[in-house]
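Entry 12.
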Amino acid sequence: MPIADLLAESLTLWRECATTFTAPGREYTPAEQSANEAHLAQSGEALRTHIPRPDASDADREKSHAFIASAFVRFARSALSLEDRHATLLLDGGFARIGPALDKQARRFDPQITDADILQACRNAWTACGLQSLYGQPMDLTPAIFAYSMLYPYSDNYLDDPSLSGDDKLAFRRNFRRRLSGEPVPATNSCEEAAWRLVALIESQYTRAEHPRIFESLLDIHHAQEQSLRLVRGCLDPLPLLFAKGGASVLADAYLAAGSLSACEARFAFIWGVLLQLGDDLQDVAEDLEGGAMTLFTEAAGRGTLDELTNRTFHFARRAMTIMEQLDSRETSLKELIERSSFSLLIRAAGKNRERYSESYIATLQSYSPLLFDSAVGPRTLAAVFPNLRGAE
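Predicted 3D structure (tokens):
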């Protein structure tokens, strides 16, 4: 299914969504919220003693990751209303193995890599491996998923480096596009050398002749990211560019996870990617306003509260979950987990930016959060304790 058609469909779905409030899940009583906060605080204290040192051995890191995964599942079962089948999926269904596997491979690939870069890569790997399972594939950190998850920490760090000139960054983007297209471009710096090695890993699993759509999807996300850079200057309508960026990112995950996609699988991946992009943009609205970046949420914040835009986003999330239900997949527990985590992402993001909402709206939304918005134990603490939750930081 061409990316232009997927983008057009997602824009149509968005414009059809209402701006009235829709309940984003189950409600929590103040007593439940207080109990969940106490549980999280206790878990955080215990986990601080299990954070691996930078010089920790592989065996010690694996033990630490296993403890953290187990602690997260215990917390999630009580605080996020997960049932045993959801907890089993997180702990025994493959997800708990992804972080340690990526951590080990990343440090072998680059002994100088930072924990922050590994965390960024891990969040993408969780998304891709979740799609593997959803699409009927065994959950596994394949060479292609590892490589794609690692590509953007390297390219983002290079493009964010203030010591580099605009010409240097433009040359990197141009060379990166050529390498993704299959051209034998010589690496001119250490970042390009690492990125080219990662592209080669993808090529080692999927040949260009047999899987052209995979490499087209990588070019799609590269093009979308280049276009989104123009939003900082505020010269374009942000809606299609932001939707293309979010949708193309997860669509690439889906192709790398499954090799090929049905029309319904492609539709869900793209629209779920848009939803995750919206969640990230809501979470980062304060930083984006300060940095001059243009998103739907920075635009709305300049006009008033974020109440109606957030309502529309909740309705869009329901549309995305409806498409997920159409997938030919028996992974009912995983579908439920994706739905709950998607709404949780939006609720946490709104709670982080509660000063940008009307008092009545944030009071209503508060009742759907397992944790109090104005508590010392809030979204940032949740991220610090359980950093694998996408969008929590």
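Annotation: The CA atoms of residues 34 and 369 lie 11 Å apart. Residues 1-20+29-49+262-377 form one domain.
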